[in-house]
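Hi R.,

Here's the chain you asked about this morning:
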Amino acid sequence: MFGIFNTTTIPALEQTLSFSQKRHELLAGNLANLDTPGYRAKDLDVGDFQNALAESIENHQKIMGTGQPLTRDDIRSGPREAMEPVVYHDQSDVSLEQQVSEVAKNEHMHALAITTMRSQFALLRAAITERA
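And the predicted structure, written out as tokens:
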């Protein structure tokens, strides 16, 4: 059944949702420690994640072109690696405005992925039930 999803954006959207969830947890922690002396803000690098996801998609397309079987780990390995390291900023304080801005951007990325995923599922449902 996993083969059905190989031709959709669902695996990439799944990784985007996972990334945004982990990033949201870090950003919420930053806000919770806003007044903690010496606390260093933590964040995940969105650029690193996007590059790893793009590389993973390219590898997926190459594997699909060779006819080799594809596993879930083939799709997830790159984005997972981008989520593991936590980036510590040089500042020892947490800026409320910066953190709220990052939370808003992260929420937008999450909402966009959810909306796109819902559309993908609606298309699959229409194809399965043979309804337009």
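Residues 7 and 74 are 14 Å apart (CA to CA).

Let me know if you need anything else.
M.
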